[in-house]
Design a protein that fits this description.
The protein has helices at about 5-20, 35-45, 65-80, 110-120, 135-145, 170, 175-185, 195-200, 205-210, 215-230, 250-255, 295-310; strands at about 25-30, 50-55, 90-95, 125-130, 150-155, 190, 200, 245, 260-265, 270, 275, 285-290. It is of the alpha/beta class and about 325 residues long. It has a single domain, classed as Inosine-uridine Nucleoside N-ribohydrolase, Chain A (Alpha-Beta Complex), CATH 3.90.245. The strands form three sheets. The chain has an eight-stranded mixed beta sheet with strand order 3-2-1-4-5-6-12-9, with helices on both faces. The chain has a two-stranded antiparallel sheet with strand order 7-8. α4 crosses α5, α5 (about 135-145) crosses α7 and α9 (about 205-210) packs antiparallel against α10 (about 215-230). It is globular and about 50 Å long.
């Protein structure tokens, strides 16, 4: 073999593992509070590009207490009963209360898992922590082991807009947790409410067309969307189906799958009213500005189809309710 052929073969051997490398991720979710978490979790677990290390249930004040236990039960139902995963990433119950102050972590199995999972990573090879609920457990991991800032990156759905910040639901549920995160050196990527609303909104018709005929899992996701829509969006006694709803949390996965555009800004600090202040700083934050929603939803449906063809998900328990 010629020397040039040897060099080419070595280069190919170096490239192939990179092409097929998976993104190691941990997810913190307040599933059960809305329906976007269910969609995001299904997408994450069905997407071969993600190496899901584990999932932690987060607190939300709108759920029955202890709320992290409630979210854990909803999470367990999706993974084992809806996705029919016989073997799956470990599931952990996180904190049911927000941080009491910026110095004291809320210790639990979920926090321990985040810290432990990070041990095999480094500045050059970070564990991604998706945060699609209150950031209590992520902040607690930072407080328990400050060296974790060199081993993870936080990719979160939160805040209303750049450059104001704002009391979006996930942030409002634990403002102190976000103060801890932004005051640390951990890399942070944020997909805000304004951008999610602009690119990830689905009308009832769009949601139906997207997933209602895509097997048992798609039908379940559609039924979850319908149930939410009728309880919170459809006006009483009016046949008005024009208002969309947003699959907010999936913006985090879109970022790691390179389906977004983003900007890097000086890192803000967070006031107690959830508004940003912008002091001079050497730190930065990555802010998602756009989502390629056509590519995202195409990939979502393709992964849904592949997953159901390769897993025994069974037959849907009931016919989907399809409002006219």
């Amino acid at each position: 073999m010629r020397r040039s052929q040897v060099i080419l073969a070595c280069m190919l051997l170096m490239i192939v593992p990179l092409v097929h490398a998976k993104v190691p991720v941990v997810l913190c979710t307040d599933i059960g509070n809305e329906i976007d978490d269910q969609w995001a979790i299904a997408y994450m677990l069905m997407t071969p590009e993600f190496d899901v290390q584990g999932i932690v249930s987060a607190q939300a004040p709108t759920l029955s207490p202890p709320s992290a236990h409630t979210t854990y039960l909803v999470l367990l139902d999706e993974v084992e009963n809806r996705l029919k995963m016989v073997t799956h990433p470990p599931l952990f119950e996180g904190s049911s209360q927000p941080l009491e102050d910026k110095r004291t972590p809320r210790l639990n199995a979920g926090v321990d898992f985040i810290v432990h999972s990070s041990k095999g990573f480094s500045k050059d090879n970070r564990l991604t922590v998706f945060t699609i609920g209150a950031a209590t457990d992520v902040a607690s991991a930072l407080l328990k082991d400050p060296t974790i800032v060199d081993r993870i990156q936080v990719v979160a759905m939160g805040f209303n807009s750049w450059a104001k910040g704002g009391d979006e639901f996930n942030v409002l549920n634990d403002i102190k947790a976000w103060q801890v995160i932004l005051e640390s050196n951990v890399p942070v990527v944020i997909g805000c409410a304004d951008v999610s609303r602009a690119y990830l909104s689905l009308t009832l018709d769009q949601a139906r067309d997207l997933v209602s005929k895509q097997g048992p899992v798609g039908r379940w996701l559609w039924e979850e969307f319908v149930d939410w829509y009728y309880r919170f969006l459809k006006p009483i006694r009016k046949d008005d189906f024009s208002k969309p709803w947003v699959i907010w949390d999936i913006i985090t996965m879109a970022y790691n799958l390179e389906m977004t555009s983003q900007e890097v800004h000086p890192r803000p600090t967070l006031r107690d009213d959830a508004r940003f202040e912008h002091p001079q700083t050497d730190g930065t934050v990555t802010w998602i500005t756009k989502v390629d929603e056509r590519r995202l939803w195409t990939d979502f449906v393709a992964n849904l189809d592949t997953y159901q063809r390769t897993h025994a998900v069974g037959i849907a328990d009931k016919e989907a309710f399809l409002p006219q």
